[in-house]
Amino acid sequence: DEIGQIIEAARRHFDFLPDSEVTLEVNPGTITIEQLKGYRAAGINRLNIGVQSFHKRHLDFLGRIHSPAEARKAIADAYGAGFKNIGLDLIYGLPDQSRVDWLADLKQAVADNSTHLAC
Fold first, then answer.
1. How confident is the model over 79-119, as pLDDT tens digits?
2. Domain residues of the chain, as ranges?
3. 107 vs 3, 12, 16, 29, 41, CA distance in Å?
4. Dihedral angle at the C-alpha atoms of 72, 73, 74, 77, nearest 10 degrees?
5. CATH class of the domain at 2-118
6. Digit-coded pLDDT (tens) for 23-32
7. Which residues pair with 49 in a beta bridge?
8. Which of 10, 19, 25, 109 has the CA that lies 20 to 30 A from 85?
9. Rounded distance, CA 45 to CA 43, Å?
10. What percentage of the chain has pLDDT greater than the value 70?
């Protein structure tokens, strides 16, 4: 995989500390558990998932290709692939996004055990 080759090349040319964080951003609409396992094996130890929202109407407004269910599956698959450090991107301030919607997104992110939120 190209990502693995890039990481391998970086490790050959730079001194990585043993506890270095190596992050990859993925799209929940296209990622597979097989890819996630490969990224983990390649040395990626932090994953950031571009969820944006757990509400279908907000995802539709943003033109995202994933559904709320696919976002939750991507998170579960990431844990299943061995990731322990998983961040989620969420968007606040969308048109027609209520405080109730935003709170529901935050609660879902917490329920999914994300370790970092970027809003």
1. 999 999 999 999 999 999 999 999 999 999 999 999 999 99
2. 2-118
3. 32, 41, 35, 21, 30
4. 130
5. alpha beta
6. 999 999 999 9
7. 26, 88
8. 10
9. 6
10. 100
